[in-house]
Design a protein that fits this description.
It is a single chain. This protein is mostly helical. It contains 14 helices and 4 strands. The protein has a two-stranded antiparallel sheet. It has a two-stranded antiparallel sheet with strand order 3-4.
């Protein structure tokens, strides 16, 4: 555990230090976001946050490569994940600067998934009627679709200062706990790569969040959203698609379905926001890629929540799905449900408090008008 903590700390410190440098470079290069009608921010803010996170990741991996435990995670899969992550980061950086079209970005994301496939990162089975081993072609298609889905789920939720960064940090933390327990406690050595990658993601997010939390001085941009989305997707595939599911279910006394469901429950809020956005836009006769101001965070803001409180509520929503799922894998179900209820109750209390304050203000305004 100490080596993984060191890995996360290194990634956090390096990302934190690189971000101001990248911020200056983004402003000079024109990689910044102008103010649009649907935006929350009120000043021109540079993007390219993914570049600083990539720098932090790259140097961290170079440093921890020699560590006794963490070093065992380096191999063909880890190399493929790094190369694919580097590719999508570059693609996102170009989009942050030149606003690439959707087709180009989807093609690039599919190509990044292809890099993963070439390095053995692929979904191999599905828990259908026991364990269904997939034909190579089907597994490859599902892998590409999964990678693209997760990347765009992270991108869609990136609408408030620090929102996507914090949600990904929560997702990565939950995933790290799950993969670490499998790797170290239960002896599933092949779970080492997900432990390494998610530890790096946690550090990257925390280091960047210091600059990205409201009021943000830099946005992660597509360079960051694509980078983080691919790293999460690759970690999930490496864990769920390449570990003996029968061994997992036997040792953890849980259904074989859990490892495959874990990425979706951990990313429940981004995926839900993505699905709602697509349905909303298509039903209105608009392109599913057309931006609007009806995301979950917009609705919470409209209730009267502050920027920071809205962000924190969405953090809690993500944690409500993520941590109970992990707890259910290794502890009695009632404990997982208790944790879910506790976290959900806290978020509900914050929303109720906001609505109470809003009603009080409206009442005061009406009374002042009558006077």
């Amino acid at each position: 555990m100490r080596e993984y903590l060191l890995t996360a700390l290194l990634a956090a410190v390096l990302t934190f230090l690189f971000t101001p440098i990248v911020r200056s470079a983004a402003m000079r290069s024109g990689a910044y976001m102008s103010i649009r009608e649907r935006d929350i921010h009120t000043s021109i803010t540079p993007r390219w946050g993914g570049v600083s996170m990539w720098l932090g990741m790259s140097i961290t991996l170079l440093i921890v490569h020699r560590l006794p435990l963490v070093g065992q995670s380096f191999g063909r899969e880890a190399q493929g994940i790094f190369l694919a992550a580097s590719f999508v980061m570059l693609l996102g950086a170009l989009d942050d600067r030149f606003d690439l079209d959707s087709i180009t970005k989807f093609a690039g994301q599919a190509l990044a998934a292809g890099i993963l496939l070439l390095h053995g990162v692929q979904i191999l089975w599905l828990p259908i009627n026991g364990i269904l081993t997939l034909p190579a072609s089907i597994g490859q298609v599902l892998t590409v679709l999964f990678v693209i889905t997760v990347i765009n789920a992270v991108n869609f939720v990136d609408g408030l200062d620090g929102l996507a960064t914090g949600i990904v940090a929560i997702c990565a933390t939950a995933f790290f706990i799950f993969s670490y327990v499998l790797a170290v406690v239960n002896g599933f050595n092949r779970a080492g790569a997900p432990s390494l990658i998610t530890a790096v993601v946690i550090g990257m997010c925390l280091g960047f969040l210091a600059h990205n939390f409201h009021p943000a001085r830099i946005f992660m941009g597509d360079s960051g959203a694509m980078l983080l989305g691919l790293l999460l997707a690759a970690s999930a595939i490496t864990l769920t698609g390449q570990i003996d599911v029968n061994a997992i279910s036997d040792s953890a006394s849980r259904s074989a379905l859990l490892p495959l469901l874990l990425p979706f429950t951990i990313l429940a809020i981004p995926l839900l926001d993505l699905i709602l956005a697509i349905v909303r836009r298509v039903s209105a006769g608009r392109s599913p890629f057309e931006s609007d101001r009806q995301h979950l965070h917009h609705k919470l803001l409209d209730l009267g929540n502050s920027h920071r409180r809205t962000t924190f509520i969405l953090y809690l929503w993500s944690a409500t799905f993520a941590f109970p799922t992990v707890i259910a894998a290794f502890a009695p179900l009632w404990i997982a449900l208790l944790v879910a209820v506790a976290i959900a109750s806290l978020s509900a209390a914050l929303i109720i408090d906001t609505m109470r304050i809003r009603r009080a203000h409206e009442l005061q305004e009406r009374e002042a008008t009558h006077v």
